[in-house]
Here is the input.
Amino acid sequence: MKKLSLKELNRASVEQFKNQEKTPIVLVLDNIRSGLNIGSAFRTADAFALEKIYLCGITVKPPHREILKTAIGATDSMDWVYYENTIDAIKALKKEGFQVLAVEQAEDSISLQNIDKEPFTKTALVFGNEVKGVSNEVMKVVDGCVEVPQFGTKHSLNISVCLGIVVWEFFRNWKYKK
Here is the structure.
């Protein structure tokens, strides 16, 4: 077995990426503290050709050295917008026809393995602060909640890991169940 070279991967240029069909998923980052986690979100969003990233509240914006360190150029390819208030971002997304789902441990959450969207709905996934999670105010205005099942001793996953797991599951449902 031979690893593929970067050339053999045949990835799109930034210009080609900007013009290709996007996955109808956006990320909403609700007061994320770590620029490294934000950079990872950009890189994951690029990998799955998501529509956009909404940076909200205290979430830092590019160019920021921690974001750039983990995004490795994805801040150039991914469209993003900043909202001072996460609820304003959610209201704008709902007007655009997005279903808004928090990714959180909450009453009546849907376990990720039970997400099966046919037909797929444009979806905004809200990820919360590393310590406090998705804010209570935001939880009151989302359309629902998705939870990643966990079986160990820790109460949560790192946001970048959680984001990758959740985005893959939604992407898989969109791309391969058409």
